[in-house]
Amino acid sequence: MKGQESFEGDVPPPPWQLSDGAFVCVGVKFDAATIRPHIPATFEISDPATGGFYHYECKRGWGIAPYVAGLGYVDVEGYDAPDGTKAKFCFGAFFTPRGYEGFTNYLRIPGLRSGLAQVTAEGTRVRGRSGPDADSGFRCEIEVVSDAEITPVGSGINYWVWERDGLVHGMACAFTSKFLEAEPIVASLDLPSDDPISGFQPTELLWGGYIPDASFNISSPYMLGPSVRHILPGREASYLALLGELGMGAALISADDRVCFVNNAAKGVLGDGIHLRDGRLSFEDHNTRETVQQAMAVSRQGAGPGAPIVVERSHGRPLIVQVFAVDGPVNGMSGSETRLSLLLLTDLDRISDESSIESLRAMGLTPAEAKIASLVGAGHSPREAGELVGNSESTVRSALKQIYSKLSISRQSELARLVLTLEGVRH
């Protein structure tokens, strides 16, 4: 097996540009309950729990080549690549010496080890193996079924994420090559039972692939934001999860607008009107995006909860976003780093009453205010609304002042537009 190349400790820092590489890949499924204790709580495992084994060699390139490596990864949510590919959490890897030096010194990804690794091809059968010695570690094997002569050249990008010292870090690997489809034959992990990654045994082989003659770039590492389990005491972190159980979406945003945490309820509403891209929340509407960013900036200055923000969607009723400041203490952080924002997302499609009343209550109005706002927004005058609810016109007008203040509007036409939006009427 390869793994004996010499080096002088002269690996430069990334980015690294590499060529003449070969990848053998097997996609697998894991048992989520088995691997969950061995993955930082910050990361949400994909459902189902998928991942893969990679073996690759790069013979030429600037900086770190030549080296060979084998690794295992689990797909995680929330840090998708631009093409929608899930980010990858590497739970273990073996690198030949020069690669180990570069990845350990500069990327500092936990779980990397120095060892032996090789990629071999015999006709259409391609094998990869890596580990502490020739008899243990990762093993994968594929049978190539697509034709290299007619397969077009493609490109892609993989995001890799890890947690260190309470912070989430990432890197990008962009590649250009032909991707040859293959039948997965073997994907196994043979290590002593007391090894920390021995439990990552695949339960099912999903796909195989072979990337010959690849050119790829490995980026410098970048910090994605604090880990929610590190920055918040356990009680507050559990509170964010509890919001999801109650159907309330919650997202914790750092001072540089990075998403530190998204509960499952929030993930369920992403994809229409609001998205999670490159570790940040992205809004389709430019004005909505600016309004949310302004609300977060105000919240970090210690202001109280901002006015509810309506996020329109192409399908269904809108989302309601409310921005709150997260008060300290924040573990391991100081100064401006503690200025975090909590976004609460209310999905109006989850409200059984399709009128605007319950939606207006979700925006912070009292039941009485919501009733008045619904009537006036539907076109009734304050006098007519008062007659319908049994109040005087002056009482309704006084209530409208409070309603306008809570909703950050100033006139009846704005209220009418809001009511129509909440009821799912396009305008």
Question: What's a quick, concise take on this entry?
Answer:
The chain is an alpha+beta fold and 427 residues long.
Walk me through the structure:
By secondary structure, this protein is α+β, with helices and mostly antiparallel strands. 24% of the residues lie in helices and 38% in strands. The strands form 3 sheets. The protein has a 7-stranded mixed β-barrel with strand order 1-2-3-4-9-10-12. It has a 5-stranded antiparallel sheet with strand order 15-14-20-19-18. Strands 16-17 form a two-stranded antiparallel ribbon. Strand 18 and strand 19 form a beta hairpin. Helix 8 (367-377) crosses helix 10 (393-407). The longest helix is centred in the C-terminal third of the chain and has 15 residues, at 393-407. It starts with 15 loop residues before the first strand and ends in a 5-residue tail after the last helix.
Q: Averaging pLDDT over every residue, what do you get?
A: 82
Structural class: alpha+beta
Number of strands: 20
Strand content: 35-45%
- Number of discrete domains: 3
Low-confidence stretches: 1-8, 328-337
Distance between the termini: 67 Å
Write down the overall geometry. Answer: elongated
Helix content: 10-25%
Alpha plus pi helix count:
11
What is the CATH class of the largest domain? Mainly Beta
Largest sheet: 7 strands, mixed, barrel
Return Rg in Å. 27 Å
- Shape-level CATH architecture of the largest domain: Beta Barrel
Strand order of the largest sheet: 1-2-3-4-9-10-12
Would you tell me which CATH topology of the largest domain applies? Acetoacetate decarboxylase-like
Give me the CATH superfamily of the largest domain: Acetoacetate decarboxylase-like
